[in-house]
Amino acid sequence: MSNNSERSVHPSKMYLVRSDYQATDHLEGTILIPQGYLCQAQEQVYEMCPSGAGGQRRNRVEQLWVKVLDSGDVLKVDRDVLTEIREDFAYLLEPVSDLHERIMLIQCPKKLALLGSLEPGAKLRVQIHSSGSKAPGVLRYRGPLGSGSSGIHFGVQLQGSAAGKGFTNGTYKGHQFFQCPENCGVFVAVNRIELAMSEDRSRQSIEILSRTADSTSPLFEIGQRVYFQMEDSIQYGEVVFCGILPNKLDHGVFVGIHLENRVGSWDGFFKGAQLCKFPSPEYGILLPVSKVHKVPVVSVQISSGSSFLSRGGSDRKQQSRSLKSRQTDVSQDPESTNVRRQLTKKEQRSCSDAGERPGRSYFNSLEEQAGLARTLSTRLPHSDSSSSVDEKMPSLSSYWSTQSKPPGGEESPSSPQSKHSAEFLKNHNEEEAKLEVNSMVEVKDPPIYGVIRWIGEIKGMTDTVAGLELEEVIAAGTDGTYLGERFFKCAPNKGLFVKLKNCRPDPRFPAHQVRANQVDRCNSIAFAEWASEKVEEDTPPELGEQAKERFTGWKKGIQGNFNSCYLDATLFCLFSFSSVLDTVLLRPKGKNDSNMYGETQELLRSEIVNPLRKHGYVCATKIMTLRKILEAAGKSSGFTSEEKDPEEFLNKLFQVLKVEPLLRIRSGNQKPQDCYFYQLFPERQTGVQIPSVQQLLEWSFVHSRLKFSEAPSCLIIQMPRFGKDFKMFNAILPSSHLDITDLLDDTPRECSICQRLAVVECSKCYEEQDINPGKIKQFCTTCSQQVHRHRQRHCHRPESLQIPEGLLPEEEMELRLFPRQTLDLYAVLCIETSHYVSFVKHGPEDTDWLFFDSMADREGGQNGFNIPCVSPCPEVAPYLQMSAAELQELDHKSIQGSARRLLCDAYMCFYQSPSLSLYK
């Protein structure tokens, strides 16, 4: 009997693609399905093998018909590249756009199950932006966002200092999922939330960031000390890689270790991909996670007044105990005798006295402390959660508490310690006020020196915390992370977290060398040559060659200073060569406007925009003044010191200046919603490698059933990316001209077939490739009837268009030409490795493009200054003029120079209407 195939319908199952796979489609050709994509089984294909002995037949499953949830394609895929997962897990992972994070999450089934079962009211910590830290919030909604969506999103109401930093009031695309104050809500995927620390101790057993053996957090952190068995010896090292190997999902998690001894043989590469670096392959080894064990780190308090946080610390049931009692617990381990032998009598005496004499260090020197910590950590390899040593470790919270008191009661007011404390407290507020990020500090007794890299609050701690980058490596140091959360970056074992009040200015340097206030420094005589003048008269933007000559060169544009690049680049995009938003600068102050309105408008108009247009340069002082105003304007903090997202800056600036919403967008039959800019959320289209903004905008509007209620004079579009970490596409072409005619309500549109007046629109036909491919489909009555007679289109439901009043009947408009509503691209904001730059069009020619970087160079060290630069970049013009067909043949890796930054790093695109900008 000849071979044949039979199809059998089976219950739907969900799968994760375990390695990159190339599927074949008879229309699209070869389609790449990346590792981490989600698939839903449609039906299985059985291949009938020849009859075996006894006439029995054996069935063998070769392939599955699956629907790829990320692209919508229905393809035939080999079964052995698919890993079956729970259906509820698949819906949780679907909104997670970072494929690597999907793979890491599926390795934590307990974590997924826990988060997927959360009910409204649960207290969370949510990551609002991909590059930011987590903020407190309360879960208000869990479920899909829309009737046609299956992915589970989490609607969270922000609380505390994060209130007002969101982007919704519980509404998403016209639908109300929960209620909260304006800009106090966010919708995020499961990878952006974690359960907050609960006041109920019974809930701590399922804490997501628990450091117990049942934790569902990542197995090892970068920089964590580990050990493993090698033949007859125990080897130690630090984790430099922990994760899934490229295209080896089914092999599980592997750990790359930087060894203390030269016994390795791995150079950090796996199949051509570099996972980490080693000074020599002899220091590297790659092992399965099952063979690697954590080294318990003993948290040693260097000084009772310093309150350090070690890498291995976590909240535990036992409070801090004396080192003497800990030695008793350690003695239960056979290896502990070696530890005790290595302690000198002097060290043992210091250790025993430490629990009785407050205010005294456990050790006479940092070297002794580091030596003991290293000895204990290397001699205690039993790192299971059941280890008695681990259970008896003091909690970090005890190290953050106030200094312990003598057994007899409170310290005598006349004691030397209290006198010293009184003297310290007297000057504490003044000294703490001087300390900020990049201040050089010491933490006393014994002195440790470093630079403050981060200042803020940490959950569970009442005092302000400072993250230090130390001059020297210490055993208890980190790489800028604490409890699995990164606050800054530094070399391994050089990061330390302390109370800010325990930091003092570094006495080795004169006080005048501490970094001065940035505004005062820019206004000083020493930097007078970098100042920019005030220009009162209204200055319209100049275009063409004269504008190019005025702006091109060093010390041109806006001078950057202290995390200001996001603001510098955004302002340069908005105002340098466009007047579309000049109404913001010119609207007279009304009786209901506050003094802050007038102050902000005057600063923006006469000290930033006008000088920029007239002289091509604005100094950092003016920008810092604007940042101070924005910080004082509301609950948002960090405008003078932290790097913000451009959309956060625009929202705050427009709110202060009471700018009318730039966009009015309607979803379905809902009322129009007002907004300042639009974030693209397109459905990824199969076979499109480098889309244009025109395509992305149409995809996003069609699939979300959105329409512009009126034509905008200024359209600011956010690309489908989140900060510097995630991009949906490797490259996006900013369309030079944006045709929004088919995206407008109440506008005459022509039939896609006969060019007569269209009366209906069909979203289902949008996917059709044989009718005006890649375009929105609208038809007159006759063409709609003919098109939808086809049996494959019987299920389509065309929707009636809003026809402007006063137009002639459809049959009388045979020869009518309908005007097109178009917008012109005038600026692009880009981000690469946390640094924002901008491309701006300065004239009518296709090659009239300038590139601006507010921090292109720097003069001086810590107290130096940045040098901005503006340079021509006509080389981007050929790319901007490419057709859709040419784009698909373009390899994004071949794009070089400025064009690469424009296409691969685009964050926001700015469009204006040449006609409407005169009236709106």
UniProtKB/TrEMBL annotation:
It is found in: Cytoplasm, Cytoskeleton, Microtubule organizing center, Centrosome; Cytoplasm, Perinuclear region. InterPro entries: CAP-Gly_dom_sf, CAP-Gly_domain, Papain-like_cys_pep_sf, Peptidase_C19_UCH, USP. One of its GO terms (biological process) is proteolysis. One of its GO terms (molecular function) is cysteine-type deubiquitinase activity. SUPFAM superfamilies: Cap-Gly domain (SSF74924), Cysteine proteinases (SSF54001). Residues 556-914 form the USP domain. Residues 151-189, 245-288, 456-499 form the CAP-Gly domain. Keywords: Cytoplasm, Hydrolase, Metal-binding, Phosphoprotein, Protease, Thiol protease, Ubl conjugation pathway, Zinc. It holds the Pfam family CAP_GLY. Residues 305-362, 376-424 are annotated as: Disordered. Residues 344-359 have a biased composition (Basic and acidic residues). Residues 328-341, 376-388 have a biased composition (Polar residues). Belongs to the peptidase C19 family. This is ubiquitinyl hydrolase 1. It comes from Erpetoichthys calabaricus (Rope fish).
